[in-house]
Design a protein that fits this description.
The protein is α/β, with parallel strands linked by helices and 424 residues long. The protein is built from 17 helices and eight strands. It has helices spanning 14-29, 41-52, 69-79, 82-91, 95-113, 124-157, 167-172, 174-181, 184-189, 196-202, 236-244, 275-293, 319-331, 340-354, 374-383, 398-403, 415-423; strands spanning 207-221, 248-256, 259-267, 298-303, 311-313, 359-366, 386-393, 406-410. The strands form two sheets. A six-stranded mixed β-sheet has the order 5-4-3-6-7-8, sandwiched between helices. Strands 1-2 form a two-stranded antiparallel sheet. Helix 1 (14-29) crosses helix 5 and helix 3 (69-79) packs across helix 6. The protein is flat. The termini are far apart.
């Protein structure tokens, strides 16, 4: 292996070799055949450190051997690119993003450059221009992926307890992460993560008073088991008066109320094609964030004339579960008929079978083009100890309105309406 084209980088360093091999392994799994330049371990190492280091410095051309000149040309074109330096804002000192985006860029460069075609013909100026154009195109491809990869990592990190990251899970699942980041529907879907602060503000764990629970604040009353010690220092007559009038200063103590899962049913029938199904998927993702915030299990089913596979996510979201959910959302396309009664009945059956404790929320997202039996649905929901929240997209269904505990009509499909659903 030749020397590095970057100052201060050694191709013999075990950490550098580990990074380079990891990048090449991931790039090969993306499917394109790597070229004699992009497939080199040394090139992968130099590309990684071009993204990772705050100030990567290229060696002068005269100090680079013949073998290293193609890599030098590519990295010089990259470091002179405005788009590449915008990418580096996210990748500097971030080994995970540097690894994933290096692998993606090697894949894109292999597609753009071809096997030595850009290096072997014409004058030096023509070769430089050809390489620069190919590098710019490759970086342009990768630039749109960077934000999506960061959003996926943000989603994965939501389920981890303090001090436990998801870096290695993200890198191990690198192929899936990059393919998802390249999916335009997923890129649009992940924009809902910008609502995280609002979702967090609206989502609260349900609590109930309990004299031996966790301390949350102060209260006024006569429960001696929660009395603040300073009250015991009051004169006896004043203490008795405050006790009789229930005006003693008490600790407010609560315990978390048992809540069932958030169970989302999304209509994927033919009438939901286009913007409706995209908005419904984004709303389902926002409800996942709500369930994580409230420490509740999350279930999702799509339905048309039939009810499709159940996707479940535990209270502590794992990277595997999050990636599985995103892949599932990417696969689902609209089409088919509509059977709302069967969908709600299936959800109630799942909740009963799971023997969950506490009230469950069944969130139905549909445009309502179906006849439903409201009496049957109310009976099934009561048996499952669940409430039905219907989100009606640009439609109306009176029977469904009767069966629902909460009925929201949505005409404008935007982020504000997603927050309305989360708040309900």
């Amino acid at each position: 292996m030749g020397g590095s084209v970057l100052k201060g980088v050694s191709h013999d360093d075990p950490v550098a070799i580990y990074r380079g091999e990891r990048i090449l392994r991931l790039a090969r799994r993306l499917g394109v055949r790597l070229t004699s330049v992009t497939g080199r371990l040394g090139f992968a190492i130099d590309l990684f450190y071009s993204m990772y280091l705050p100030y990567p410095i290229l060696l002068p051309p005269e100090e680079v051997g013949e073998e290293g000149r193609p890599a030098h040309m590519i990295l010089r074109a990259a470091l002179e690119s405005e788009d590449f330096n915008e990418l580096r804002v996210s990748t500097i000192a971030d080994s995970t993003l540097s690894t994933l985006l290096s692998a993606s860029l090697i894949d894109a460069l292999s597609r753009e450059l071809g096997d030595e075609a850009a290096f072997g013909h014409g004058s030096t100026t023509m070769r430089d221009r050809g390489v620069e154009a190919a590098v710019r195109r490759a970086i342009g491809r990768v630039k749109s992926e960077a934000k999506a990869i960061k959003d996926i990592r943000k989603l994965l990190s939501r389920g981890n307890k303090a001090g436990v990251g998801s870096v290695f899970d993200l890198e191990e699942s690198g192929e899936d992460v990059i393919r998802l980041a390249r999916n335009e529907d997923i890129q649009n879907l992940l924009e809902v993560l910008s609502l995280m602060p609002e979702v967090a503000r609206m989502s609260r764990r349900k609590v109930m008073p309990f004299s031996r629970g966790e301390l949350r604040g102060y209260d006024i009353g006569s429960d001696l088991e929660r009395i603040v010690p300073t009250e015991l220092a009051l004169p006896r007559m004043l203490f008795r008066l405050k006790y009789v009038e229930s005006k003693l200063l008490l600790y407010e103590k609560v315990i978390t109320k048992d809540m069932g899962p958030v169970y989302v049913l999304v209509d994927k029938s033919g009438s939901m094609e286009g913007e409706k199904i995209r908005w419904a998927k984004a709303t389902a993702l926002a409800l996942l964030m709500k369930s994580m915030r409230e420490r509740r299990d999350y279930y999702l089913r799509f339905f048309d004339g039939a009810v499709h596979d159940l996707v479940s996510v535990s209270r502590r979201l794992s990277p595997r579960e999050a990636l599985g959910l995103l892949k599932y959302l990417a696969r689902v396309k609209s089409g088919g008929g509509t059977d709302i009664t069967k969908a709600v009945d299936t959800a109630c059956g799942d909740i009963i079978e799971l023997s969950v404790r506490g009230l469950s929320d069944v969130v139905l997202i549909t445009d309502g083009e179906d006849n439903v039996s409201d009496l049957f649905l109310r009976r099934r929901l009561r048996k499952a100890n669940a409430r039905l929240i219907t989100v009606m997209i640009a439609g109306e269904n009176r029977s469904l309105r009767k069966a629902s505990d909460s009925y929201l009509r949505v005409t404008k499909l935007g982020k504000e309406e997603i927050l309305r659903v989360v708040e309900a």
